[in-house]
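Hi C.,

You asked whether I'd gotten around to modeling the 293-residue construct. I have! Everything is below, sequence then structure, no commentary in between.
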Amino acid sequence: MMGPVVVGVDGSPSSLAAVEVAAREAGLRGVGLRLVHAFGWPAAGIPHGGRPWEPSGAGMRELIDGTLTKAERRAHETGPGVEIMREVVVGEPVTVLEIESRTASLAVVGSRGLSRFGALLLGSTAGHLAAHAACPVLVVRRRPNPAGPVLLAVDGSPAARGAVEYAFAHASLHGVRLQALHAWSTRTERSYGAPADPPFVTYDEDRLQDEEERVLAEALGGLRDRYPDVAVDRRLVRGRVRHSLIEASADAGLVVVGARGRGGFAGLLLGSVSQAVLHHAGCPVAVVRTEGT
């Protein structure tokens, strides 16, 4: 999709960092940048039959205009050649950005916004959008490392295919390496010969490791030919998936995960691994939903 890059703007330092990342992404992709500010107006604050901007909304309008002007200035500094659009929408940010994602190529948000819940590690808007957006979502955590590799979480599930494709495309656009990490242990489902196998059975660990190597190779199959410019480091790690990804993210420029992979409950739109990485990664995180999952 060649839609614009959409970024949520609320005036917080986190959202301004997101604007910088979004402007850079729009420039690399050759698409426009859409600055979206959404706010929920209390029903009691709107005069009967009146418009929210006039006359009692004048103060709010000036505040929002100032917020968008600052964001636009930051975007121009980061991506001077990018076409920038501004949009103010009355509505809850999570709903507005979800709708905006339907025509976007990428949605970018900060990890924390302006909220009375300042102690939360991940803002409600970022978490909700990662689970429900119709396009990839990039959550900006900390300062991005432009030279860091793209860290891809590989689990071999169909739900993660979109994440694999996004990771290759992102690495190619940014001219960085791709580090494909697949974590495994004897507790994974491939360790069992049948669903009823007890947890105390003996495993052929060499065979299991060979199987996990095959899973990693097949997950990357075809895309290495489509992106010959991307250098790929394959990492097979024995250990817990969440811990392995969070630890490796300290040196990465971006972590890419699927919205829900192996082991996820069918009713959950955002898997436990994705949630853990969103909360604790040492760099920005991209969550990519595969169409149909």
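If it helps when you're writing up: The chain is about 35% helix and 20% strand.

Thanks,
B.
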